[in-house]
Amino acid sequence: MPQGVPQTVPDDGLTTRQRRQQPVLAVHTGDGKGKSTAAFGMAMRAWNAGLRVAVFQFVKSAKWRVGEESAMSALGELHDTQGVGGPVEWHKMGQGWSWLRANADITDDHAAAARAGWGEIARRLADEQHDFYVLDEFTYPLDWGWIDTDDVVRTLVDRPGRQHVVITGRRAPAALVDAADLVTEMHKVAHPMDVGRKGQKGIEW
After folding, report:
1. What are the boundaries of the region Disordered (predicted)?
2. Which of 69, 132, 137, 162 could share a disulfide with 46, CB 3.0–4.6 Å?
């Protein structure tokens, strides 16, 4: 796609503007590094465009605070105090999700917490509460059978309005890949951990 020009133009009856305004479902998968990093880069672009951004992390402890979270939270505060960009929400699995904190039975069960989290996201999609969603490492609860893939695909395909969704994680289900508008598979060629080097601050988190 040189210079952002489509190689083919479908005969779908839509104008160029109408086609451009369609919502995007993106999937970043594969065994290489950079899936989440790319998604958060897209989230920063969305914030700059004034879109309402929401991040939901499915396999991150509520105690972990990664660099992207700090950066996006700062951008959210900038919006709140100066009206720049768009609003930002950041939620983590289990006790990091505010709507589950009072329910110890759910937060102690990761599968139940993942299902409850997806239920909340589905509700927000139906209400068009956000413009840009990052479902970080969401492929794992799908792969593990915690959340029904068919329900997820159906909900995402039928989502109303112009809500963009980016999903990250290895082993993305085929049905999700088939439904996506944009799919990128990261292939690892080399990684510092291959030679015994641990993750570094500023690189891994």
Report:
1. 1-21
2. 132
